[in-house]
Specification:
Blueprint lengths: L4 H11 L4 H18 L6 H15 L4 H16 L7 H19 L9 H16 L4 H17 L24 H20 L1
Helix pairs in contact: 1-2, 1-8, 2-3, 3-4, 4-5, 5-6, 6-7, 6-8, 7-8
Length: 195
């Protein structure tokens, strides 16, 4: 997020209030600090819950509550297990998406983070059900998220700050969809490194 801060802020300046990059950088910097305090034996689910709670308490705007909810729901889905497989990861991301949709009331086509997250989650589930490796499934999910992100450019925003601009929001890539791709890319890299 730190590397993408200026780019996300630039995207948000066009259709929002120019704070998305700063907020996400601050939030995920706080998450890194929080995770450094955790016992390494804490299971992944609890790590995600802690990360989500940290985002809620440190990120302003909609991003903190949305990503905080997503990570906490994903963490609760994983539970106390020390490891998880592709099916567990797919279920966790489905829970994350459900939380985002429930909180933000956005659907694909609204020009939000859901435009990147929903196709990624759907593709991940399809790949896992098709016996793809977790790394392969995540690579396909990332490609779907990137396509969804690019697909926000011609859309008119109907949710969030960008919706206030009406037709002037057309022609701009959604910053929330873009940061979603950044997060999914980090997840894909982490899983690929494990394999």
């Amino acid at each position: 997020m730190h590397e993408q801060r200026d780019y996300l802020t630039q995207l948000d300046a066009a259709i929002g209030d120019a704070d998305h990059g700063t907020n996400m950088d601050r939030g995920f910097s706080s998450v890194v600090a929080k995770l450094a305090e955790l016992d390494p034996a804490v299971p992944p689910g609890k790590v995600l819950v802690a990360a989500g709670s940290t985002l809620v308490s440190t990120v302003g705007g909609a991003s903190g509550p949305l990503w905080g909810t997503a990570l906490r729901r994903a963490g609760r889905s994983l539970g106390e297990d020390e490891t998880f497989d592709g099916a567990g990861l797919a279920a966790a991301l489905e829970a994350a998406l459900d939380g985002v949709v429930e909180l933000g009331a956005a659907q694909p086509g609204d020009k939000t983070m859901v435009d990147a997250l929903e196709p990624a989650v759907r593709t991940l589930r399809e790949q896992v059900n098709g016996s793809a490796t977790p790394a392969g499934a995540l690579a396909a999910a990332l490609a779907a998220a990137e396509e969804g992100m690019r697909g926000t450019v011609p859309l008119q925003a109907t949710k969030g700050r960008a919706s206030y601009l009406g037709e002037r929001s057309i022609g701009h890539q959604d910053p929330g969809a873009t940061s979603t791709v950044t997060i999914l890319r980090a997840l894909e890299h982490a899983v690929a490194a494990e394999q």
